[in-house]
Amino acid sequence: MFVYLSRHYLTYNINNMEKTLVLLKPSCVQRQLIGEVLNRFERRGLRIAGMKMMQLSDEILREHYAHLVNRPFFPSLAASMQASPVVALALEGVDAVQVVRAMAGPTNGREAAPGTIRGDYSMSNQQNIVHASDSTSNAEIELKRFFRDDEILDYTIGTFAFIYGDGEANR
Ligand code: TYD
User: Fold this and answer.
1) pTM across the whole model
2) I need a labelling partner for 96 at 20 to 30 A (CA). Which of 21, 32, 89, 171 fits?
């Protein structure tokens, strides 16, 4: 953060970038849609701050879906999430949590509008291609769950000045 002071105005240039966690689920990996879904995030102007392929353990899944462990569908959800590796992404942008949730669409692919990821690639409530953090506080917790600090990389993308208008985004 820096504070810019001029004769005419005072601007507090506070970093307003947000990071969110996305998982490209086995339904994405197995259907060979990784590139296609990743491409959507890149085209939108989100910065890929972290990316790795991993096989989810029982432990991390129970933690990640703690709000669902007692639901009858949890065993089949866990099996679907362990059917192959997933790709974990840390995506950065202004309002990234809300932007990525809107790109994902509602949980059930059959109810998701065309143009959303689930609405374009999913016919299922479970095999729904992506996970995306649902709040900034959960994003923070989930990013720590899937990435070590040194796996989140701070670099600038060259087109930054053409993704946001003047004053809209501060890094
Ligand atoms: P949830 O956190 O409710 O939705 P979202 O992924 O949209 O944030 O549910 C987590 C995952 O659990 C969801 O992506 C797919 C799975 N799930 C089922 O398999 N069956 C269900 O009935 C529900 C509600 C979710």
Assistant:
1) 0.93
2) 32
DSSP E strands in the chain: the ranges are 2-5, 10-13, 17-24, 47-54, 86-94, 130-132
Atom number in ligand 1 closest to CA 67: 2
CB of 116 closer than 6 A to ligand 1? no
- What's the structural domain count of the chain? 1
How far is Cα 139 from Cα 39, in angstroms, rounded to an integer?
21
pLDDT in tens, the chain (171 residues): 444 444 444 455 678 999 999 999 999 999 999 999 999 999 999 999 999 999 999 999 999 999 999 999 999 999 999 999 999 999 999 999 999 999 999 999 999 999 999 999 999 999 999 999 999 999 999 999 999 999 999 999 999 999 999 999 987
Q: Evaluate whether residue 56 is within a structural domain.
A: yes
Q: Would the CB of 107 count as within 6 Å of ligand 1? A: yes
- 126 Cα–ligand 1 center, Å: 6
For the question of residue 8 being annotated catalytic, the response is no
Beta carbon of 48 within 6 Å of any ligand 1 atom = no
Determine, yes or no, domain membership for 8: no
Range of the domain at 82: 18-155
Q: Report CA-CA distances (Å) from 158 to 50, 67, 95, 133, 171.
A: 17, 40, 20, 26, 13
Say how many Å lie between the CA of residue 71 and the centre of ligand 1: 10
Query: CATH number for the domain including 120?
Result: 3.30.70.141
> Would you say residue 59 lies in a domain?
yes
